[in-house]
C-alpha cells in the first residue's frame, strides 16, 4: 500500500521521513477498510521510556529514543478467524533495519471467547512468519495449560513440528514460530476448535526508531489509523405526495451521503409528541432509500429519517417531512 495524497506526503515530510525509508508488505486483498481512532484503542496501549505515540490524519507517529526501556504500543479489536489471516501485512514509513514495528496477533486458541496467547510478526521475517511473544500463562483467564503455544508451535528454530511440512524460515523471539497458516493448523489440531484472532496491535521497542504506521491488514479487513472526526452525513427526505387520504400510505424517499459501511436508515413518525421508529433497513451503496408507512392521524403527520453511526460516518437526521392526511369522503 502507498500513500498518494498530498496531505500524507506533507505529514511524512514534516516528520523528516524520507521516501527511501518506506517499508511495505504486499496487500492481502482486504475487502473492507476500518478506521481506528484513539477512542478505539484497548489496554495495553501507551508509551514508556520517552517513547512517542501520536495519532495523525493518516497514521500513528511512533518513536523510541533508546533500545532498552523505550517503547510505544497499541491494541484494538479485530475479531476474525485466524484462518483468514495468512500474511504479516502493514505499512510502515520509517527505518526498516535493524528492526521495524512489530504486529501483534492476540489469539483465542480454543474459541471460548478468551485470549490465550499473542503472536508477533515483522516484515523482515518473510511476511508470513510469527513467533510466540506471550503464552497462556501471561493471560490469567486462559483455560489452556501453561506454554500451550510453545508446545504447539509449528517450528522451534529450524526444526518443524511433527506433521508440519513447510520449511522453517527465519524467526524472532525465542525460536517458537511458524507461518500464520501453520499456526492455524497446529492450534486447531490441538484444541479441535478454529482459532480466532480477537485483537490486533503493534509495538515499537528494542530499537531507536522514528516512523509512521499507516495501516495493518488482518485477513479481509484493513485497519487504518486516523485522528480525523467521522464524516458528517446529509440525509434528504421528501414525500411522494404531501396530501393523502386516511387509508393511503405515506411514501418517503431520499438519499444519504456519504454512505458508511453497514449504515442503516430508519423511518420515524412523530406520535403523541415522541419520534417512533416505523421501519429500519440497510442503506444501499448509492445512498438511496424508499419507505412507505401508515399514517397515524388525520391532519398533519410528521416523518423523518435517521441514519446510524458507522466506523467512518457520524449519525444523521433528515429534516421533518409533513404529510397532510384527509378524511376519506
From TrEMBL:
Record key words, sorted: Signal
Organism this protein belongs to: Nocardioides anomalus
Segment forming the signal sequence: 1-29
High-level lineage: Bacteria, Bacillati, Actinomycetota, Actinomycetes, Propionibacteriales
Protein name, entry field: Bacterial Ig-like domain-containing protein
Top-level taxon of the source organism: Bacteria
